[in-house]
Amino acid sequence: MESNMTIVTPAYFIISGFSGIPHINYYYLFLLVLYIMSVVENGVVMALICLDQSLKTPKYIAVFNLAFVDVLGNSALVPKVIDTFWFDHKYIMYSNCLTYLFFYYVNLLMQSLNLALLSFDRLIAITFPLRYQIILSLKTMFSLVAACWIVCILDILIVVGFLTRLSYCRSIVINSYFCDYGLLFLLACNDNLPSNILSKVIPSLFIWAPLFFILISYMCIGAALAKIAGGQDRMKAFKTCSAHIMLVAIYYLPILVTFNVAAKMPRNARIISLSLAAVLPPALNPLIYVLQTQEIKLSLKKVYARIKQSKIAVK
Description:
The chain is an all-alpha fold. It is 75% helix and 3% strand. The chain contains ten helices and three strands; from the N terminus they run E-H-H-E-H-H-H-E-H-H-H-H-H. Strands 2-1-3 form a three-stranded mixed β-sheet. The longest helix has 34 residues. The relative contact order is 0.14.
């Protein structure tokens, strides 16, 4: 019986990465620059939200959480990628690989849920403006964010739990740039059906369902905006959503492309598309909020003025 089979766990996996691309170290340098940008930019956004009392709103709790997720997700991925390929440490211990996978996918799913939370915030703010503070208080948003974290962590713990029941008695080479779940369970030589099912259920629940919710939310927002008489008021209300719409596009478009054509892509093209989809949005998200959101612009000016005044006072 298969249930009595001994589980064969390898001491390590080998992450193969790119194949036959000259000067690939420049691409790793590009990823490193994007990582540094994301850490600095998201750090500034988090600091502004902490320092400015006017940003202590449900919307900016979700924005703060998105910035935190972006930093955590990139920090779990990029330094390890640099270590793996720049310093040629392609062997990764079995337990380290599962830990790597856990943090990567928790943050990937959390990004999607966080974008759904931001769309929910805009939906309530525009369709029920007078009841916004009642429906979506600070406590409610904190509870929603905490619930999203708990669900994501529990879900990926289940994923990792099923991976530990797989035997690896053939290849231990992962043809990706990290411990890719979609490739990892396919290397198993025993029954991987539960992991295969999870590989289809998880994207449905945590990627496509939030995207569907976001689209429905904006259909409702569009209907609410159509009822606003003044064109100027309508445009002002829409501008509060513009930054979020751009975040949604930056996050979901690369995922949609990768999911639809990844199986047909050559390995190198697949690795590039996956790595850019993971690293590029966290570097662009803060720029979008700084450039598109009036509250962040005002907060930056206030903090800059405060720093300028403190320097003058010291002199």
